[in-house]
Amino acid sequence: MPLPALAQGGPICERCDLTLNFTDTMASGFLYCPHCRQPLETIELGGFPRGVCPDRHCGFIHWNNPTPVVAAVVEHRGGLVLARNVQWPAGTFALVTGFLEQAEDPAAAAAREVEEELGLRATQPPQLIGHYPFDRQNQLIIAYHVRAEGEIVLNEELAEWRHVPFAEVTYWPRATGLALRDWLRGRGYDPQEAPLPLRS
Asked: What is the pTM of this model?
């Protein structure tokens, strides 16, 4: 999932002025109405600031709801599989993650992402660990434990992978890291917190 490349924010589409700004956790999102091109105004609706089109005939509201993303704690041959995205710095490994497809069951999405990114097959239905907010990307992480088998073959999104024994895993104190921590604690391990990787 190529998210770290957007870590500095700024315009990502010159034609539509779509801007991602992580300093305010993407509170603005759109600068202009995608329907009529009017500059959006910030108005509090439902207790949160929203981008609202001032044209009363248009009525567009940018609710900026979080995007659901699945994450997989992949158990394979007695250890965990962690992977490094091609856009991440060397030494940065995390869980396999991905977006849901339209009308896709989240558990099925977790198994699909493991197969697409690692070439591994789930040996049983993925088990829900929990859900975790990831404010920096305005995402809701839905995390699953996936027991998998097969030979690891990375797709184009991943640069490398590691097998890590359960007792040696550390976790980041955010989103997918918290899911990993909770899963390990549920199996009697005491994982230690690691510092978050530096953002470029």
From this structure: 0.81
